[in-house]
Amino acid sequence: xxxxxxxxxxxxxxxxxxxxxxxxxxxxxxxxxxxxxxxxxxxxxxxxxxxxxxxxxxxxxxxxxxxxxxxxxxxxxxxxxxxxxxxxxxxxxxxxxxxxxxxxxxxxxxxxxxxxxxxxxxxxxxxxxxxxxxxxxxxxxxxxxxxxxxxxxxxxxxxxxxxxxxxxxxxxxxxxxxxxxxxxxxxxxxxxxxxxxxx
Length: 199
Ligand code: IMP
Fold this sequence. Notes:
alpha/beta, six-stranded mixed beta sheet
């Protein structure tokens, strides 16, 4: 059995990853399996830099292959904000949503995209990074209870539902994370030996 550590303690992301990895011969560990893990400072200036920082730190600390993602919402009318600051934009999910809706009050251009960059690290170095995106529009009010973060106000192109109105399964077919993940998985399957470290 091959192991990989997901460098996150975020239960929502873990649930998405667990579902995406279902049926693969890879056992998913998380930072919750490594109590006391000192989280690195996410001081990169791009999704890719932050994903690299997180994957490398987890790989070095846990001494097994690791992957990390960095993701966020880029809003066209806000020149890409909140972007890499999506989680720090305000204190809670509902405050983040309220703040974004306020900034976009009366703004016609509602175009936005979720971006996710996954970095894979093994043997003390970052091996590869993969980017996924999903384009859509920002709604004028939150809708739906599923998912997390900005899901209630993001409507992916081609759907008349917000991300939070889709089931996890439906979201996982089109999300930025699923997208980046599909590219990463293809790479991992080709390079399975990078996961052969003993746990
Ligand atoms: P990260 O943990 O640094 O990648 O933070 C990404 C932040 O972007 C999250 O805290 C959410 O606010 C937002 N975000 C990323 N992916 C999603 C998603 O799939 N749905 C809703 N919000 C997301």
